[in-house]
Design goal:
- The chain is α/β, with parallel strands linked by helices and 701 residues long.
- It has 20 helices and 27 strands.
- It has a 7-stranded parallel beta sheet, sandwiched between helices. It has a 6-stranded parallel beta sheet with strand order 13-23-22-14-21-20, with helices on both faces. The protein has a 5-stranded antiparallel beta sheet with strand order 2-1-4-3-5.
- The longest helix is centred in the last third of the chain and has 17 residues.
- The two termini are 49 Å apart.
- It binds adenosine-5'-diphosphate and zinc ion (2 copies).
- The site of one zinc ion has 7 residues, from loops.
Length: 701
């Protein structure tokens, strides 16, 4: 390095800018732990700070690196140090660097992986350093944005806003949970809170579960604030996403709306973070680091002295327990919530021939069709049949790599594993006994669409389907007639927004789908909501099963049945289940109170912290051996506070790997995370456990 040679002999000057940069290279390798020192050439000194991004030489490659610290030059080592190749502009704000450091520790990950979350979109691809072309910013068309008027606030809204605006004015951190049903005016509260933050010269972040499913809220922010809103989401092309990121970074945009990753929007002087639909599971990131955007939002808000505003019609027990609750009890338009009827499916017999519908449901759908109205039907299971079996030998078609049954997708003519994506052609005969009699069990959304269309679609009453399959396949499978609709905006490629627009613009019809139909958007002219197999989610062995079931039913009930004569029907074989009974009464408070009591008794969150450790290996014995070793490491009385270690227990085989799970329940989060991190590192480093992969999930969802 010529610069190194040149500098080696020069005496250090007291007031000279730091010459040494501690750089964390951005790599996913867990073994590679930075930071590493680089010597800044003269022309970089003073221009490089914490958060600067550099291209650095590293083991015969060039890597992107983030400056995590600076130091005076160190004479001794200098001769050996390399110099960065170039500085990439712009770097990340120091605040986000520090947030990444927190995430790495909080979620048992590495700093490099945490930094990758806060880097500009596509940063690792821009190593070449070529200048980006200016990209036109994406257009976002909203479904059902209703007028630009800024309404007079209701008394309830005014009361809710007061402490928020006061906290903003005092520049003091403040957390608030806004509990209000769909249509109670929550979005208007978010808009006013953002307005107050902007008036102070501060910025705002608005998190939504998924942009494509929640175009209404995006549309309203753009209507209200225009160019100062930037939208960050995964369906934007990389160049468009980077353009939006830059607008935020240089302050041209001060409000960011987006899904969980928008919590890392590069906004300086942040005044407000809103988390809409805070109960939504999409806020948890399932890759490493397994961060929860709600907790990151709380941390970031606290660090910036900002207000955190969580909103939902079905708030999580954790949030109710932790955060002060404000209530919007009534819908703005004064309409009551729809009546909910629970339909007991026990004794209804095999559903074949009746599309799995209770007679009451079939009648209600027929009534909606007669009235040329709209209905939504939720069945949280996609595909045609859940599983196939041979009628003569009993063989069940299952995934070769996972211990789960394959789901039939009739239109594509294949069976698929919904866990790993494995696909094979739908069987005509049994490979074991040769029988051609293959039984199909259970119905998913594809079958339901087919069956309902056969009965109800008279050419003017279309049956639309919204699930992961139709979104991927486009209009051909989604059903209904394709009309001349607005395109999705230059940056939007997904089919969800398109499908929702078609259902909204249709004069009448049914929208069936998975939980996607219960999220975000709402359709004022839907008068009937139906939940089929409502207890399906209750059957998961998970302490959040009740919470999920309650939220799903209550959310659908809040979105469907908006008319004065709205009706919601819930089909179940567990009509007495607490989640279903409370959802039918629109009793969120009652549900949460009971749920918190249960969790306190069982020491589940929020009364403890859970850390889940999964050991996976091709051989069952290897997975078991590793899990036992982790168990032994953790069992040594190292843990403080009240701690229990559950397991190891087997999980079903996934992607060809046998799995064992351990769950640590602890009252002392930080100590427990550190202990688990150390234990897993020791076991993973041992040669006898080579070939075992370990995943650590803090606050698993
Ligand atoms: P939520 O976010 O709780 O579903 P919204 O904020 O979307 O509720 O409000 C529902 C509807 O009521 C929207 O059409 C909105 O424009 C309207 N709205 C909200 N607040 C008011 C108000 N104070 N006066 C009149 N209309 C309002
Ligand atoms: Zn057979
Ligand atoms: Zn599989």
């Amino acid at each position: 390095m010529s610069s190194t040679a040149l500098l080696a002999g020069a005496p250090p000057q007291a007031d000279a800018p730091p010459a040494l940069a501690h750089v964390e290279p951005i790599t996913t390798a867990r073994a590679l732990k930075g930071p590493f020192d680089y010597l800044l050439p003269e022309e970089m000194r003073g221009h490089v700070e914490r958060g600067s991004t550099l291209v650095v030489p590293f083991a015969h490659r060039q890597l992107l690196g983030v400056v995590v610290g600076l130091a005076e030059r160190s004479e001794v080592l200098e001769a050996k140090l390399l110099a960065p190749v170039r500085v990439l502009e712009p770097g990340i704000p120091v605040e986000l660097l520090e947030l990444a450091e927190w995430i790495a520790a909080e979620y048992c990950s590495t700093l490099a992986r945490a930094l990758a979350l806060v880097l500009p979109p596509g940063a690792t691809r821009r190593l070449s350093g070529r200048k980006r072309r200016e990209v036109a910013r994406p257009r976002h068309l909203a479904v059902g944005a209703r007028g630009t008027a800024r309404p007079e606030l209701t008394d309830e809204q005014r009361a809710v806003l007061e402490p928020i605006v006061a906290a903003l004015a005092a520049r003091r951190p403040h957390e608030r949970l806004l509990h209000g049903v769909t249509g109670s005016g929550k979005t208007e509260v978010y808009l006013r809170a953002a307005e107050a933050a902007l008036a102070q010269g501060r910025g705002a972040i608005v998190l939504v579960p998924e942009i494509a499913l929640t175009p209404q809220i995006v549309g309203r922010f753009i209507e209200r604030f225009g160019e100062t809103v930037a939208v960050l989401h995964s369906q934007l092309r990389p160049a468009a996403r980077y353009a939006e990121w830059l607008r935020l970074r240089d302050g041209r945009a001060r409000v960011c709306v987006g899904p969980r990753s928008a919590v890392f929007a590069p906004i300086e002087k942040l005044g407000l973070i809103v988390v809409d639909e805070e109960h939504d599971a999409s806020y948890k990131h399932e890759g490493d680091p397994r961060y929860d955007a709600r907790d990151v939002a709380a941390e970031r808000a606290a660090r910036s002295g900002a207000v955190l505003l969580l909103g939902s019609a079905t708030p999580r027990p954790e949030s109710v327990h932790r955060v002060g609750v404000s209530v919007l009890a009534r819908r703005v338009d004064g309409r009551p919530l729809p009546a909910v009827e629970v339909l007991d499916m026990r004794g209804e017999g095999p559903s074949d021939g009746r599309q799995g519908l209770h007679p009451r449901t079939a009648q209600a759908l027929a009534d909606v069709r007669a009235a040329r109205g709209k209905a939504i039907v939720l069945l949280n299971r996609r595909g045609w049949s859940n599983f196939l079996s041979c009628r003569s030998c009993g063989r069940v078609w299952s995934c070769p790599d996972c211990d789960v049954a394959l789901v039939l997708h009739r239109r594509g003519g294949y069976v698929a594993c919904h866990h790993c994506g494995h696909r094979e052609r739908a069987p005509q005969r049994c490979g074991d006994c040769g029988s051609t009699s293959v039984a199909r069990h259970g119905a998913g959304t594809e079958r339901l669409q087919h069956d309902l269309a056969a009965v109800f679609d008279d050419g003017e009453f279309p049956v639309f389907r919204l699930d992961a399959d139709t979104v991927a396949a486009g209009p051909a499978q989604a059903g209904g007639t394709v009309r001349g609709t607005a395109d999705g905006g230059a940056g939007e490629r997904g089919g969800v927004g398109e499908l929702l627009r078609r259902f909204e613009q249709a004069d009448c019809g049914v929208l069936i789908g998975t939980q996607m139909v219960a999220k975000g958007h709402d359709f004022p002219d839907v008068t009937l909501g139906v939940v089929l197999d409502a207890d399906a989610t209750l059957r998961f062995p998970d302490f959040r099963a009740e919470e999920r079931t309650f939220a799903l039913i209550a959310q659908l009930a809040g979105r469907a049945g908006r008319g004065s004569d709205g009706l919601v029907l819930v089909q179940t074989i567990a009509p007495a289940a607490r989640a279903i009974v409370h959802a039918a009464r629109h009793d969120s408070d009652g549900f949460v109170t009971g749920e918190l009591e249960r969790r306190r008794a069982l020491a589940y969150p929020p009364f403890s912290h859970l850390i889940r450790i999964v050991c996976a290996a091709e051989q069952d014995a290897a997975a078991r051996g590793a899990a036992a070793a982790v168990h032994a490491e953790l069992g040594g009385g190292l843990l403080a506070g009240e701690t229990r270690l559950l397991g190891p227990a087997p999980l079903f085989r996934l992607r060809g790997r046998e799995r064992q799970v351990l769950v640590l329940k602890s009252s002392e989060r930080r100590t427990a995370v550190a202990a688990v991190g150390a234990a897993v590192a020791r076991v993973a480093g041992a040669r006898e456990h080579a070939g075992v992969s370990f995943s650590v999930d803090v606050d698993p969802q």
